[in-house]
Amino acid sequence: MADPAKTKIVAISKVPSRDVLSRLDKLEDAFITALQEIRSVKTELQQRAAESPSLEKLLTVEDVANILGETETHVYQLARAKKLPGIRIGKYWKFVPSALQRWIEQQNG
Q1: How far apart are alpha carbons 84 and 64 in whole angstroms?
Q2: Rounded distance, CA 62 to CA 74, Å?
Q3: Which distant-in-sequence residues (6+ apart) come within 8 Å of 78 by Cβ?
Q4: Quick one: 68 and 45 in the same domain?
Q5: Is residue 9, in this structure, part of any structural domain at all?
Q6: Domain range holding 92?
Q7: Residue-wise pLDDT tens digits, 39-93
Q8: Considering all CA atoms of the chain, what is the largest pairwise distance in Å, rounded to the nearest integer?
Q9: Residue 92: beta bridge partners?
Q10: What sign does the CA torsion over 39, 41, 45, 51 have?
Q11: Same domain, yes or no: 102 and 63
């Protein structure tokens, strides 16, 4: 058995071999491809989040009454009759701003 203190360390050449450079090029290409995919998915998620009505702050009956220039009672009546796009959450009515905007445009259309 050789004495570990006397074992020669094989020096790695200062000039990398073609095989090592080729492998590094492949790794770099794979890394760049993965990074581009990550950026693409991130951009798509950001666009979805910007377009998603579920991320909009919901309006209250009071908000809608102010927007429409109506009373809260009238807004309740329209929502219950499904003439106004609203969401019932327990005993409260909430309204998605983009849906309300489309409804207003249809009424004026």
Answers
A1: 10
A2: 11
A3: 84
A4: no
A5: no
A6: 55-108
A7: 988 888 888 777 765 578 999 999 999 999 999 999 999 999 999 999 999 999 9
A8: 96
A9: 89
A10: positive
A11: yes
